[in-house]
């Protein structure tokens, strides 16, 4: 039995709910949003879709957060999305306030659940949620970038995407780094192939902004990839993914991605298999994350002071 709560069912939330249920990862879904009637009408849509597919997952769409109780996993995609030209970090203060509120309300009702953060800036929101809930929280991290990288290399080299391996690490977004020592095509190191690494890195960083500019948001790509993270946890798949997991840094919990085994428990990390250069990038991503996170926390505290 896998009971999954979904908090926030806007563009990305809806895609995640649909994809994860279709993939067989969810036996019971409780879907919550603050917009009146949205979860309830979405529940009808899902019931119609699953009637034709013969899917028996139990679904409840609700505006009552108390219904999200006793879950094995809680997926949080509630929050503001960025508009064209914005960086993910610009969302920090607004979305952190939502996480603080949700942390206080969800944690007591879902003891032992794994929390999966989706809202941006996703790794920092995972750190904020874990700080205030004290519950184990992971972030979708760079698994999305990992698949963007693999898809781009496959297209460029005209090989099936299943023949491309490798991971992107660091913070999700503009500061993500391709971990080149992990990238292989048909089992051979990437340096055996004629590919412009800068072009790959630019694609991974810029394509989401381009999709947002034209389509108003990213949905099917991350929605499907995030559903696979839920499936790896729910079905205990032992799949290696580049998600961000909590780590201690200067006395704070921070979230930075590197390849790790994902199943009903998370780990071990495969970080020790990276070459020196990739490990250096990862360490520098942790330092940058920590500094930006502390700066953003200061702004958050400032905004919470009575004026
Ligand atoms: N991790 C990733 O790879 C990834 C990919 C895409 C989007 N995102 C992020 O996910 C978030 C949502 O994006 P979107 O495109 O779905 O936005 P959206 O505006 O379409 O949906 C956001 C939803 O959150 C709801 N919401 C707001 N506050 C809430 C609260 N306190 N409780 C419950 N629900 C609440 C809103 O009512 C809305 O339905 C954004 O921060 C976006 O940047 C992350």
TrEMBL record:
Annotated NAD(+) binding sites: 8-13, 33, 95, 118-120
All copies of domain Lactate/malate dehydrogenase N-terminal, residue ranges: 3-134
Molecular function, one GO term: L-lactate dehydrogenase (NAD+) activity
GO process terms (BP): lactate metabolic process; tricarboxylic acid cycle
Entry annotated with the keyword Nucleotide-binding: no
Residues engaged in binding substrate: 82, 88, 120, 148
Ranges where the Lactate/malate dehydrogenase C-terminal domain occurs: 146-284
Keyword annotations from UniProtKB, A to Z: NAD, Oxidoreductase, Tricarboxylic acid cycle
Active-site residues from the entry: 172
InterPro entries the record matches: L-lactate/malate_DH, Lactate/malate_DH_C, Lactate/malate_DH_N, Lactate_DH/Glyco_Ohase_4_C, NAD(P)-bd_dom_sf
Highest taxon listed in the record's lineage: Archaea
Coiled coil: none
Family, similarity comment: Belongs to the LDH/MDH superfamily.
Name this polypeptide is given: Malate dehydrogenase
